[in-house]
């Protein structure tokens, strides 16, 4: 049996618990891995709360992105062998000592990339990469990132800066130095944010990446020169109502490998600010569920 962390019913954190489950055999297109690290994301608690549907068989192991060592390769999988160090999207939950990855959304981990860093690439960093590619803004243009200090925002700011964009981002004042370390201009969110955005970017901005949604998005959209240059990862309905769109995920094994190569080269930092052992998974989730985690939160699994 292997230790895992999941939820036994849809609801709040009280439905979470440690579970023992048998080691899983990889099916077609899957890799069985010994997990070394897992990224913690808002989607984990959104799934547990039933905000994304209630179709899962319970109990359900939490976590979407993991890194680890391949133990077994499923039928029809090419390019991976037992012993490979890999990362990718899980098919069976990431918060566990052993799990399955979908080989089609996994890549080899370069030697210079830690298991902790690799565990952040397939959901959080890849989402940032997809969003910046989707916006397609060229060098010299301006981008406003709502919620810049979190996992997706930290990566998006760096990717946008590397493309020559000027980046503004909303965060609390405690995050000011952090946002500036990403090469971006911090704008405090909350009352008066519309005026502060106008003051920071008097001519408006060429794109908005929304990672917050709702009123935060409504308060910022006036600054956007062209409403079609709005992409949201957080609020499909409000983005569409305002003339923008929800993100289209287009991550491939090739884009994952390219992101890992950037991390190995020191050109992209997932900014892991909190690491917890699997035994403290509930604390890691609580930090992310607070909505105020900075950068990435990772579970380390030995
Ligand atoms: N569809 C997809 O494929 C996909 C993939 C990844 C993520 N997402 C979604 O994208 C969103 C962001 O994900 P994430 O991983 O970056 O989240 P996260 O790391 O949990 O974001 C936390 C950050 O949000 C900031 N924040 C909270 N309220 C804010 C506000 N009103 N204005 C500005 N910043 C605010 C906090 O800053 P302070 O501490 O300074 O308050 C904190 O640094 C989530 O809704 C997530 O579910 C979607």
Strand content: 25-35%
Structural class: alpha/beta
Tell me the distance between the termini: 15 Å
Number of helices: 10
Unreliable runs: none
Number of domains: 2
The ligands bound in this entry are: NADP nicotinamide-adenine-dinucleotide phosphate
At CATH's second level, what is the architecture of the largest domain? Answer: Alpha-Beta Complex
Order of helices and strands: EEEHEEEEHHEHEHEHEHEHEHEHE
What's the rounded overall pLDDT mean? 97
Radius of gyration, in angstroms, nearest whole number: 19 Å
Structure description:
- This protein has 302 residues and is of the alpha/beta class.
- The chain folds into two domains: 2-120 and 270-300, Quinone Oxidoreductase, Chain A, domain 1 (Alpha-Beta Complex); 125-246, NAD(P)-binding Rossmann-like Domain (Rossmann fold, 3-Layer(aba) Sandwich), CATH 3.40.50.
- It has ten helices and 15 strands.
- The strands form three sheets. Strands 3, 5, 6, 7, 14 and 15 form a six-stranded mixed sheet that branches. A six-stranded parallel sheet has the order 10-9-8-11-12-13, sandwiched between helices. The chain has a three-stranded antiparallel sheet with strand order 2-1-4, with no helix packed on it.
- Helix 3 (121-135) packs across helix 4.
- It is globular and about 60 Å long.
